[in-house]
Amino acid sequence: MRFQLDVDMADGWSTEDAVRELGRILRYWGGNLGHYALKSGDGAAVHDSDYREVGQWRVVAAPEA
Hints:
By secondary structure, this protein is an alpha+beta fold. It has one domain. It is built from one helix and three strands; from the N terminus they run βαββ. A three-stranded antiparallel beta sheet has the order 1-3-2, with no helix packed on it. The longest helix is centred in the middle third of the chain and has 18 residues, at 15-32.
């Protein structure tokens, strides 16, 4: 399986904002992942500190080698 986190930073985040927001997103979801089985198909929307949806995380099947 593969864990994917996609965050769109094109919405005018400065470098400082991007560092702060990405750090917050990683801390939040790192602590919250224990509530999921982490099986293929799991996922959720990711929001910034203003509760705007800025991306998603998901678990997908690994590509065939």
